[in-house]
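Fill in residues.
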């Protein structure tokens, strides 16, 4: 099937939830937690083809999803998607391993699921921030977004994997570029002048 969706960054999940309820949206499932992991081959062929194979776990249930290469669109993320519930989580992991697939990226999120007529609505709390995700026909998505106070300029086509990767990279660069504090510099100086017996071994450092 073809999936058409957009994401919109939001500040407050509770306020957005109330707006949706005021518009007559119905709650399918209140906030719950998801665990997601992407699988790929050693040569990263799925990533290179802009495809994705995701194993998702929600409580005791699990789902395997294939996502095809995104189709061209200025405002919407459009791609082929197939999903099936997995009955035996351990077995599907073994099957993927035997096929030469390996886990390459893991992320979690907190999600609430709602519906408004033909539109599927997700309120998501993620590592990259809070978002509302709308899925359905293009005209329906634009109409509902407008009722929430958003326009096409607010639409985000990136998926959570891309945004979380960017966030982790930004956090890493930010932390690694911070200069050492005066106390750490002093400690370093004292450490260098201390006896070798007080210096941790290389194996201890690498294991920490």
């Amino acid at each position: 099937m073809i999936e058409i969706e957009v994401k919109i960054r939001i500040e407050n999940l509770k306020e957005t939830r109330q707006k949706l309820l005021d518009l007559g949206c119905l709650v399918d499932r209140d906030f719950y937690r998801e665990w997601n992991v992407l699988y790929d081959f050693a040569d990263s062929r799925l990533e290179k083809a802009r495809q994705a194979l995701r194993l998702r776990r929600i409580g005791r249930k699990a789902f395997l999803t294939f996502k095809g290469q995104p189709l061209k669109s200025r405002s919407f993320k459009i791609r082929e998607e197939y999903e099936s519930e997995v009955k035996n989580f351990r077995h599907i992991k073994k099957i993927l391993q035997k096929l030469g697939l390996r886990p390459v990226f893991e992320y979690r999120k907190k999600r609430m699921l709602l519906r408004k007529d033909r539109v599927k609505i997700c309120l998501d709390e993620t590592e990259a921030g809070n978002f509302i995700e709308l899925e359905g026909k293009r005209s329906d998505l634009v109409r509902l977004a407008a009722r929430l106070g958003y326009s096409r300029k607010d639409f985000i086509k990136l998926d959570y994997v891309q945004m979380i990767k960017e966030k982790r990279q930004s956090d890493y660069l930010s932390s690694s570029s911070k200069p050492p504090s005066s106390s750490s510099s002093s400690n370093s100086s004292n450490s260098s002048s201390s006896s070798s017996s007080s210096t941790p071994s290389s194996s201890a450092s690498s294991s920490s």
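The first strand starts at residue 2 and ends at 10.
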